[in-house]
Specification:
CATH topology of the largest domain: Topoisomerase I, domain 2
Structural class: alpha+beta
Number of helices: 18
Radius of gyration: 31 Å
Largest sheet: 6 strands, antiparallel, barrel
Shape: globular
Length: 697
């Protein structure tokens, strides 16, 4: 008897991550299966170039190692499903993943098989199901062109660097520009010549009124520059002889407007400045908030919209919801007179909304119990930014006072906040710190109580912080929202830049590679050329540029330069740094090697001796528990620094706070150092002691 075929009564929805699958399943119900592809399942091979340049740059795609079982599972599910919907991320990379899945699962890419949504909420998912569309091949081509170009540049340049500089090096198209930006800043700092200059502050008073501060503003009604002690002494002596009076009192009002909702770049910058998050950490936490978290009785819900965007636009629904919340919670006076729309930058793709909470009703206080500390801090930043964007400006009364003598003019400024406006919710913005000046009238005489000359020296431009580097990349058109965090982490991982006091500094290797690439491949490190190329890649998505033609125009000149570089580039092999650490297996002095996870110690007699060990970051203190090992600085799985014993696991000493050389004056045991934004103190951890000393606040 023939077996009946099982009825295909479910639709299969494929997303990228299990967390997203879990959240979406709750909204779709029993008629759907939701499975995760775990990101890309198909890509170019790692072991070879994977691009046939002679055949119009035809890529050779393979199943990514380790993804075979995932793909097999998806194929089985697909056969049992009556319809397959590809719901990967709403950007080019997500479109490319859907395209690869369509080919792997034998789905017609021109059929209605693709859905996308900017937020993982019930309404957004249901709306997406009503707008099923074919795969956007132009979007796929834009991603494919970028991927192939980056592969060609990386896989062709890297062997050149192995040959000329050091084995294991790699070079990337966009990363090389980022390294150049850091190197150029370092060159500015080296070439900077400081100049001396002086400022003159004063303490003045009109009659019996409150004393206030005023700055020397002009000399002989001209801007001035005092460059020596002799000059400032002369100015101070003459100023003391001046008869001063109030010449002008100017009262005015100042408005301070809120910022636009977050883009990827502005979120990374603000999280770096206010939360001390790296770009990579910001995007990791934002991904969790986007994909969904368990909110107790409400279930798993996505808390923010898609976090890779260059748009400041928000939907009318989100705008209206925010305005209703403001009026109800804070009152009508806190609501901006008109609904505010923010203009996207001229080169923005504006593909989808700004980063915002999916529901303004989920205030940070309501979410606090469901989020870990880092999730809460980032969510609060995003929530406050959206709400503040629709609020009234903050208002200040300002007062400017011009005080004049015959030759010297002083100026005093003060302001007072009269309405906090959007500052009511935006904790990332600080209020005015100007002092309030006394009530003064024109013509009043002013007494000069004190003159305070101060010496200064011009400062070189600062090195880039995480926030400043991302801002610079965005301003110069280097990379796109989805790539900023990757660019910053990649140039660190490759050993081309390092952090010093939270700022990026090029390594010797980074400067060497940058100089070689700039000399022999000027287009690769040229900022303007890279920005124009990014625009060309964007135009592939709109169908304005043919991707194969673009690659031909770029690659063949590059190939010619590559051949010349192999012949003409000087051989500057970097020698490994020799240490005083002896290899316990063969007695050689170990050397510092560079791997994908950073520096490590290795025996120079490899392959005869294959001994390696991590570099121990000693703090100069012996372990207080075993007294035989050294206290070393380590990092937890989440990247948090801690201090442990070099004899681990035999000794399990661990502290989040740094041990110091000083001994406790009370019990003679080891002291620890605790630093926060509010205080810096040394303390004894012994339970029977409790000694503490505040170093600074």
């Amino acid at each position: 008897m023939a077996r009946k075929k099982k009825k295909k009564n479910k639709k299969l929805v494929i997303v990228e991550s299990p967390a997203k699958a879990k959240t979406i399943s709750k909204f779709l119900g029993k008629g759907f299966d939701v499975e995760a592809s775990m990101g890309h399942v198909i890509d170019l091979p790692k072991s070879q170039l994977g691009v046939n340049v002679e055949e119009n740059f035809t890529p050779k795609y393979i199943t990514i190692r380790g993804k075979g079982k995932t793909l097999q599972k998806l194929r089985k599910k697909a056969k049992k499903s009556k319809e397959i919907l590809l719901a990967t991320d709403p950007d080019r990379e997500g479109e490319a993943i859907s395209w690869h899945l369509a080919h792997a699962l034998k789905i017609d890419e021109e059929s209605n098989c693709r859905i996308e949504f900017n937020e993982i909420t019930k309404g957004a998912i249901q709306s997406a199901l009503e707008k099923v569309r074919p795969i956007d091949k132009d979007r796929v081509d834009a991603q494919q062109a970028r991927r192939i170009l980056d592969r060609l540049v990386g896989y062709k340049l890297s062997p050149l660097l192995w040959k000329k500089v050091r084995k294991g090096l790699s070079a990337g198209r966009v990363q090389s520009v980022a390294v150049r930006i850091v190197c150029d800043r370092e060159e500015e700092i080296r070439n900077f010549k400081e100049e001396e200059y002086w400022t003159v502050d004063t303490k003045v008073q009109a009659g019996t009124k409150k004393e206030f501060d005023a700055k020397l503003h002009r000399i002989d009604n001209k801007k001035f520059k005092i460059t020596s002690k002799e000059e400032v002494d002369k100015v101070v002596d003459q100023l003391k002889e001046e008869k001063l009076a109030i010449k002008k009192v100017k009262k005015s009002k100042r408005r301070r407007n809120p910022s636009a909702p977050f883009t990827t770049s502005s979120l990374q910058q603000q999280a770096s400045n206010k939360l001390n998050f790296s770009s990579k950490k910001t995007m990791y936490i934002a991904q969790q908030l986007y994909e969904g978290l368990d909110l107790g009785a409400e279930g798993t819900v996505g808390l923010i919209t898609y976090m890779r965007t260059d748009s400041t636009r928000i939907s009318k629904e989100a705008q209206n919801a925010s305005r209703n919340y403001i009026a109800k919670t804070f009152g009508e006076k806190y609501l901006s007179k008109k609904a505010k729309s923010y203009q996207a930058k001229s080169n923005a793709q504006d593909a989808h909304e700004a980063i915002r909470p999916t529901s303004v009703q989920r205030s940070p206080d309501k979410m606090k119990d469901y989020l870990n500390k880092e999730q809460y801090r980032l969510y609060r930043l995003i929530w406050e930014r959206l709400v503040a964007s629709q609020m009234s400006p903050a208002l200040y009364n300002t007062l400017t006072i011009d005080i004049r003598g015959d030759k010297y003019w002083l100026r005093a400024k003060g302001s007072i906040e009269i309405f906090d406006g959007f500052l009511r919710v935006d904790s990332s913005k600080s209020g005015s710190k100007d002092e309030l000046l006394p009530e003064l009238k024109e013509g009043e005489e002013v007494n000069l109580n004190k003159v305070i000359p101060e010496q200064h020296f011009t400062q070189p431009p600062p090195r880039y912080t995480d926030a400043k580097l991302v801002k610079t990349l965005e301003q110069k058109g280097i990379g796109r929202p989805s790539t900023y965090a990757t660019i910053v982490s990649t140039i660190q991982n490759r050993g081309y830049v390092e952090r010093e006091s939270k700022r990026f500094k090029p390594t010797e290797l980074g400067e060497l590679v940058n100089n070689l690439l700039t000399e022999h491949f000027p287009d690769i490190t040229d900022i303007e050329f890279t920005a124009q190329l990014e625009d060309s890649l964007d135009k592939i998505e709109t169908g304005e540029v043919d991707w194969v033609k673009l690659l031909k125009e770029l690659y063949f000149p590059f190939e010619e330069r590559l051949e010349k570089a192999h012949k003409n580039m000087e051989d500057v092999q970097l020698k490994d740094e020799v240490t005083d650490i002896i290899c316990e297996k063969c007695g050689s002095n170990m050397v510092i090697k560079h791997g994908r996870y950073g520096k490590f110690l290795a025996c120079p007699k490899y392959p005869d001796c294959k001994n390696t060990k991590p570099i121990l970051n000693k703090v100069g203190v012996k372990c207080p528990d075993c007294e035989g090992g050294d206290v070393i600085k380590r990092k937890s799985k989440k990247g948090r620094p801690f201090y442990g014993c070099s004899n681990y696991p035999d000794c399990e000493f661990m502290s989040w706070h740094k041990p110091i050389k000083d001994k406790c004056p009370d019990c003679k045991r080891i002291l620890f150092e605790k630093k926060t934004k509010k205080e810096h103190k040394h303390y004894c951890a012994a339970e029977d002691c409790g000694y503490e000393k505040v170093v600074s606040e």
